[in-house]
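pipeline/complex-builder :: batch 7 item 3
reading input block
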Amino acid sequence: MTRHLLTKAEASQPHLNSFITLCHDQAISAARAADEARTRGENSLLLGIPVAHKDAFCTAGIRTTSGSRMLSNFIPPYESTVSRKFKDAGAVCLGKTNMDEFAMGSSNENSFFGAVRNPWDLSRVPGGSSGGSAAAVAAGLVPAATGTDTGGSIRQPAAFCGISGLKPTYGRVSRLGMIAYASSLDQGGPLAHTVEDLALLLKVMAGLDENDSTSADAPVPDYAATLATPLQGLRIGLPREVFSETAHPEAARALQAAIAELEKLGATLVDITLPHTALSVPAYYVIAPAEASTNLSRFDGVRYGHRCDNPTDLEDLYSRTRAEGFGKEVQRRILIGTYALSAGYYDAYYRQAQRIRRLIKNDFVAAFSQVDTILTPVTPGPAFGLGAKTSDPVAMYLEDIYTVPTSLAGLPGLSIPCGFAEGMPIGMQLIGNYFDEARLLNLGHQFQLHTDWHTRRPDVTRITASAN
Amino acid sequence: MQWEVVIGLEVHVQLATQSKIFSGASIAFGAEPNTQACAVDLAMPGMLPVFNEEALNMAIKFGLAIDANINKVSVFDRKNYFYPDLPKGYQISQLDYPTVEKGHLDITLEDGSSKRINVTRAHLEEDAGKSLHEDFHGQTGIDLNRAGTPLLEIVSEPELRSAKEAVAYLKKLHSIVTYLGISDGDMSQGSMRCDCNVSLRPFGQQEFGTRTEIKNVNSFRFVEKAINCEIERQMDILEDGGRIIQETRLYNPDKDETRSMRSKEHANDYRYFPDPDLLPVVIQDETIERIRQSLPELPEAKKSRFVSDYGLTDYDAGILASTRAQADYFETVAKRCDDAKLAANWIMGELSKWLNQENLEIQQSPVTAQQLGDLILRVKDNTLSGKLGKTVFESLWQREGEVDAIIEKKGLKQVTDSSAIEAMIDEVLNANAAQVEQYRAAEPEKQAKMLGFFVGQAMKASRGKANPQQVNEALTRKLNG
């Protein structure tokens, strides 16, 4: 099976470009080891299950690039906590998936290794920044993959590719060995076809890590055990700010149908308000670049990664290494972040953005005193065409409008397919209270028991057929 | 014009923790380059800092020792700048919420009076690595062993008024941190480094003059010299009607001058902001109380106890209590020989003379406190004369064995047998009959002087071993008899 999937993935590369690195040898030997373990009668949660890791997770002995030229030659000597947990659970890593450079992007067009395409329509983007993972799962190259989500980077590509994805509560999953974009927002999570699979994958990924100070010391429940709980009496909040906007009409109709379905399953709908939602994108695009601007200072050409040829002096080493190593969007965010933290601008930008962040968090805290979960769209509309928004960064940033508030508040968000618009899948987002992933997964699973959106697959026979 | 000198010190103290402040790597000095730097210290992608509580406890200890406020919540910030020996491109430090604030310590001035110096704050931060410019043929080598070593930066109010006061303050800090055992205080290895802020103002003026900062001075002596030469430089400029430029300067001990490193215009904007990888540090009252209970006796307390318990003078007690090692040494010697005054004299006299000669610290002394105690016992019980005591001390210094064995081996035992002494004196008197005549004919005042000659002859004859007091008595008796 591993060999079959590797061949399929290989064949898909010219069309989808969902992988940066395929690990043939390591995957085959891991699969063989899993077979032997099974023969010995051993079992573990993911024994022999093929997975792919977003290239933001460091994997010992396997090149890890974060989608950047800066790390195009970087082979970590250590394993991220997430990828180690998958290894320990018996999973077989097929490869490292493509991504927006340093997880900065909403379309996966910002990768040094080329754009990823959406398996539903090769002329459209798969979303970002975990676009490689989402495309690989949607195309059936792997049954599950990891992603990272800073402002929507798991949820948005999951929605664009018609699969399920979960951004857990900040602190639920260790960030150790995950190459940082914005430390106070970054969170690893799983992508798969079904919520049932997500429950299993989260069980493997979650938990306290003594080596990540921001990882939470909260018990990891058996998420699969509560999937079957009936939805009777569950209160779902619908923020009026979100639903009063002029939305993509086809997408809005699909979402309304999904809401009606949940009501039929016994959930109660509650009108709620999240008054500061409109401020979330501006706040996010100050805080995340500010953190990124210093997180990325370590890439200086001194110790590892890209180094420019024949530097004349220190200044030259720094400026040419970084000008060559970082792509345009990364440079833009470093500049924005540096500016936001500069003397004289700090109060107007960074401090102000932190204030907004607190207000947004308070909005959610107030809302969760009335409801158990909150429902919103994941994106304004279905996947857009490649190149459609690359020349307008602000339009691109507004893609994150529904996912960013959750990130700023540190809350968990589940993205599941709920219909189609323009022939492309669209998703709905279910937001839970802190560490209430079990309820989100229960809700998502119940929805999937009564709908079939998650079973729809793009036709990929042509793009995954091997050349011979 | 009469100028008033204003000095404030920023002292970086390396904390003697087992491992680094944000990683598990060792902090031992002198290892091969880059052998004590782990993935966190190298700022490898995805690596995260984890705060070492041992460093926090040491900062609290220091705060309590200078009667400061311990902030219940302190926050780590990133201080951003690019330099090859700063792997992350930022240093983790504390800006707005340091662990320790508003303490004070007392220094003793030259005239013996005491002056209180306020300590603004003491914050925790990580050290950078080292850039090595030699041996690389025009290139620079980077050693990251030191990167991540915990530092406590202690900032004084600008209340010091001379280089001597600055040194007294620094010595006091040194004594406190070594007493507390939170640093080895070894300035030659960079365990304590000092930035000196110096400015001048006309006497009586309220506002401060423009200051300069002399970076990274690493010995008491250099602090004094660097400040004095900076005072002189500034005074020359001001007297000539010039103005001081706010800048960072470096002291060159070989030339005994400071030179400009960078001016304020070229200063970095460090873009401080709270490090999102670390949670705020919350300190419980119980933690502070537990540490307070475990504080050792501090220099001031020890000094007063030396005065009251051992009857030492203020001066002697102050010197002996100035370092924990010296105080411990003194107490061991005093207990062993049961004579605090003699113990103090020997330590401040013979022992410190030898230590100074060979440039050693008391904890490196080849003569142990037990040995010195034994030696003093042998002087007290008249086995040794004071002079021969020094001979034995030298043998101890050369590690020739224990006190009694040395006395035995070298035959240094003092002669106290009075008949032997009398016989020897008779011989001396017979051999110097003429001088005896002169003595007896002389005036009493002159006799006293002439006695010295006979004592010298007698001691010489006994090869120094005769008890000098007995010799004196017997000679006086016989010459006058």
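note: The mean pLDDT of chain A is 96.
queue -> next item
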